[in-house]
Amino acid sequence: MLFGISWDTSSAWAFAWSILPILGKGLIVTLQATLLGFFVAAVLGLILAALKSVRLKVISWPARFISEFIRDTPLLVQLFFLYYVLPDYGVVLPAFLTGALALGLQYSAYTSEVYRAGIESVARGQLEAARALDLSGWRTFSTIVLPQAIPRIVPALGNYLVSIMKDVPILSVVAVLELLNVAKIIGDRSFQYLIPLSMVGLIYLIMTLIAAWLVRLLDERLPKEGIHLHHD
Length: 232
Description:
This protein is an all-alpha fold. It has 8 helices and no strands. Helix 1 (9-52) runs antiparallel to helix 6 (137-167) and helix 4 packs across helix 6 (137-167).
């Protein structure tokens, strides 16, 4: 008996095992939303960082405004906008895709700052040498700046990967059957919330520890002087 509540250990384990496959389906959705959201954040963040570094203010200022606007508005508001407002203008997306895009959009503002810090860490002498060799801006960025910046920003990008993973439960408000939403449905139907929610907490702990380990491993493996790209 614990806190006045009788507890049958055998039945608790049986219940946990019985709901594990259902939680596994929610886990797959969570991982898919995490990876797709991170991909969108990484790509859009890089685009925003590149635009913000352009010397022409007519390009850099709008990019900075967009980045600040995204970062300073709540993720939930952006999710509701994409899910409820866009259909009024003929843009109808599945709930899962809408949620992943909202995650990617929100975190693109943060990853753009990570990219910016990595870009600014590249020695200016190398940029001047690229100009002296008459390399185009795109080739300088893609073959000199970016390969050196990426190894330096891997830990920060990894932190945002974990953050996106932990924000996936927000997608439950648009009926995405991710891990936490599945656990809540199990609790609603069985009137037992402790076990499914505890299992979700444990699964998230394991996932974040694995993600942090993989990011740390990647950071150790990448050459600090930069990635060497071969071009024809």
